């Protein structure tokens, strides 16, 4: 059977005396070594590498989350808005970002003509980007 040896190292305050190495436990079957601690820290020497890798992974993870929150979602909403504006057609009921509800009479490039009052036949022209929601497609 193999023996486990524990060896101690003398520090400067103890002087230069030698510490004898002795076998510990005659009936032990496994041997192992213990990493010597770094004198500058209270942690073992191998602990610092995994800690800095975990910090790096954490920082990269934060940047990925920030990318999705700050850049990806607004671009996605902007694409949906552009698609909705491009699919506007005559007789669609829409609501502008200012809260005006009307029916699309005409779409010319970046300008949309809305009929806002049936009885007086009142029409207004708004920028296509001012259309907030297509209400006629809401139930579908």
Written account of the structure:
The structure is a single chain. The protein has 140 residues and is α+β, with helices and mostly antiparallel strands. The chain folds into two domains: 36-86; 89-137, SH3 type barrels (Roll), CATH 2.30.30. 29% of the residues lie in helices and 25% in strands. It has one helix and seven strands. The strands form two sheets. A five-stranded antiparallel β-sheet has the order 6-5-4-3-7. The protein is rod-shaped. The N and C termini lie far apart (79 Å).
Keyword list:
single chain, 140 residues, alpha+beta, SH3 type barrels, 2 domains, 5-stranded antiparallel β-sheet, two-stranded antiparallel sheet, 1 helix, 29% helix, 25% strand
The spatial strand order of the largest sheet comes to 6-5-4-3-7
C-alpha end-to-end distance: 79 Å
Number of strands: 7
Q: Could you give a short account of the major beta sheet?
A: 5 strands, antiparallel
Strand content: 25-35%
Roughly how much helix do the residues carry, as a percent range? 25-40%
Structure classification = alpha+beta
Number of domains: 2
- The outline comes out as rod-shaped
Which oligomerization state do the chains in this entry correspond to? single chain
Q: What is the arithmetic mean of pLDDT?
A: 79
């Amino acid at each position: 059977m193999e023996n486990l040896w524990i060896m101690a190292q003398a520090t400067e305050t103890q002087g230069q005396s030698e510490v004898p190495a002795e076998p510990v436990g005659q009936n032990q079957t496994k041997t192992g070594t213990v990493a010597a601690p770094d004198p500058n820290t209270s942690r073992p020497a191998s602990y610092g590498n995994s800690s800095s890798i975990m910090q790096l992974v954490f920082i990269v993870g934060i940047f990925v989350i920030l990318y999705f929150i700050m850049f990806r979602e607004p671009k996605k909403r902007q694409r949906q808005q552009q698609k909705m504006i491009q699919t506007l057609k005559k007789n669609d009921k829409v609501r502008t970002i200012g809260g005006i509800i009307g029916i699309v009479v005409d779409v010319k490039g970046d300008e949309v003509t809305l009929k806002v009052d049936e009885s007086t036949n009142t029409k207004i022209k708004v920028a296509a980007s001012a259309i907030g929601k297509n209400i006629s497609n809401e139930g579908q």
